[in-house]
């Protein structure tokens, strides 16, 4: 009654051995790690894009109007308004005024603190001084720094 054990019959006669099965399982696990790594990278890139897009949208929520500038001694005084077109408040709003030559190159720059708090749908006046330089054609003024009141910050 010498029966053969099923394991004895299957392993030697079957083209896939235990070692091949373990190797295939390891390869499959490796493939899943590669897929998970690629998915993780993709999600990370999507997150970065969304963060940058949100920040870009945040910068676009300000509208700045200003006068042509009046010369005072060695500087040009630029007066204007910063309008927060967004719904959220902004803290510590800074404005940068740049003097541009005929080619659009920045030849002088002045940075000023506009307001500690700029409420949503409100505006504040500002005054920026830019050093006087010959050849200035125009000025470019923009909000260059602020803290969003809608963002929770940890210590």
Summarize the structure in words:
The protein has 155 residues and is α+β, with helices and mostly antiparallel strands. The chain has 2 domains: 13-57; 62-148, Immunoglobulin-like. Helices cover 32% and strands 40% of the residues. It has 2 helices and 7 strands; from the N terminus they run ααβββββββ. It has helices at 6-13, 18-59, and strands spanning 62-66, 70-72, 75-84, 90-100, 106-118, 123-131, 138-148. The longest helix is centred in the first third of the chain and has 42 residues, at 18-59.
Give the SSE order as H and E letters: HHEEEEEEE
What is the helix fraction of residues, given as a range?
25-40%
Query: Any low-confidence stretches, pLDDT <50, length ≥5?
Result: 4-14, 52-58
**CATH domain class name of the largest domain:** Mainly Beta
Number of helices: 2
Number of strands: 7
Annotated CATH architecture of the largest domain: Sandwich
Radius of gyration: 32 Å
Overall structural domain count: 2
Describe the main β-sheet briefly.
4 strands, antiparallel
Distance between the termini: 79 Å
């Amino acid at each position: 009654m010498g029966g053969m054990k099923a394991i004895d019959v299957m392993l030697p006669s079957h083209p896939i051995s235990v070692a091949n099965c373990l190797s295939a399982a390891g390869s499959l696990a490796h493939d899943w790690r590669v897929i998970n790594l690629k998915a993780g990278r993709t999600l990370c890139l999507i997150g970065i894009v969304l963060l940058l897009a949100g920040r870009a949208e945040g910068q676009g929520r300000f509208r700045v109007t200003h006068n042509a500038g009046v010369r005072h001694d060695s500087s040009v005084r630029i007066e204007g308004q910063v309008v927060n077109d967004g719904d959220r408040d902004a803290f510590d709003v800074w404005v940068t005024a740049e003097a541009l030559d005929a080619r659009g190159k920045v030849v002088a720059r002045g940075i000023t603190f506009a307001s500690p708090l700029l409420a949503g749908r409100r505006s504040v006046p500002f005054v920026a001084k830019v050093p006087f330089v010959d050849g200035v054609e125009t000025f470019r003024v923009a909000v260059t720094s602020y803290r969003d009141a809608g963002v929770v910050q940890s210590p």
